[in-house]
């Protein structure tokens, strides 16, 4: 009997009428994102439960720092995903330390998680249309995009590192302004 109820439920949520109504209504998308975020914030009472929920995003965020730091010779020397208490009492989920932070690599190494945004855009534009339109695929898509976009935002520590070298800020500000004006 449970088997029949389960398959009846799947047939309803994967029916074309239900899926069309669900996919075309942004209310459900916003509701799903808020529910995912509430579940995430509910885990903040425990550092280890919070780490478990945040590990996929932490891996992405810290990997971007590490990769850009390696490419730009910032010499990453410490990569950790183990949570710890910060000086202010908050949780630090992961970190990457560098041995050679200079004016030319501080800003891109610190702002590297922003590179997750084009990845999220690519998934939205090219991967999602290839997936069969099922309720499960949509929920996984929303979960993945929520993780990617949320972890693309640089942390306060990232902004502090990026702001250490005024020459680096001016250099990259000039580069981005020039690129923007060429468009």
Describe the structure.
With 183 residues, the chain is mainly α. It contains nine helices and four strands, in the order ααααββββααααα. Strand 2 and strand 3 form a beta hairpin. The longest helix is centred in the N-terminal third of the chain and has 25 residues, at 47-71. The protein is globular and about 65 Å long. The chain starts with a helix and ends with a helix. 16% of the residues are buried.
Distance between the termini: 62 Å
In round numbers, the mean pLDDT is 89
**Series of secondary-structure elements, N-terminal to C-terminal:** HHHHEEEEHHHHH
Compute the number of helices.
9
Say how many strands there are: 4
- What can be said about the biggest beta sheet? 2 strands, antiparallel
Structural class, from helix and strand content?
mainly alpha
Radius of gyration: 20 Å
Query: Low-confidence parts, pLDDT < 50 over ≥5 residues?
Result: none
Percent of residues in helices comes to: 55-70%
Our estimate of the beta-strand percent is: 5-15%
Shape: globular
Strand order of the largest sheet: 1-4
Topology:
Elements (H helix, E strand, L loop, with lengths): L1 H12 L2 H8 L2 H17 L4 H25 L4 E5 L3 E2 L5 E2 L2 E4 L7 H5 L5 H12 L7 H17 L4 H7 L3 H17 L1
Antiparallel strand pairs: 1-4, 2-3
Helix pairs in contact: 3-7, 4-7, 6-7
Name some characteristics of this structure:
two-stranded antiparallel ribbon, 9 helices, 4 strands, mainly alpha, single chain, 183 residues
């Amino acid at each position: 009997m449970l088997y029949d109820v389960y398959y009846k439920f799947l047939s309803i949520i994967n029916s074309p009428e239900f899926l069309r109504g669900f996919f075309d209504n942004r209310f459900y998308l916003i509701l799903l994102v808020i529910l995912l975020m509430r579940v995430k914030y509910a885990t903040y009472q425990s550092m280890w439960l919070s780490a478990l929920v945040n590990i996929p995003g932490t891996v992405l965020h810290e990997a971007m720092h590490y990769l850009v730091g390696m490419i730009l010779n910032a010499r990453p020397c410490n990569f950790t995903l183990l949570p710890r208490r910060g000086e202010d009492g908050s949780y630090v989920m992961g970190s990457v330390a560098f041995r050679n932070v200079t004016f030319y690599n501080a800003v891109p190494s610190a702002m590297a998680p922003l590179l997750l945004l084009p990845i999220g855009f690519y998934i939205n534009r090219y991967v999602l249309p290839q997936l069969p339109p099922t309720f499960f695929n949509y929920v996984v898509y929303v979960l993945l995009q929520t993780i990617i976009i949320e972890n693309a935002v640089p942390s306060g520590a990232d902004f502090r590192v990026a702001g250490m070298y005024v020459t680096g800020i001016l250099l990259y500000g000039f580069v981005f302004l020039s690129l923007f004006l060429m468009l």
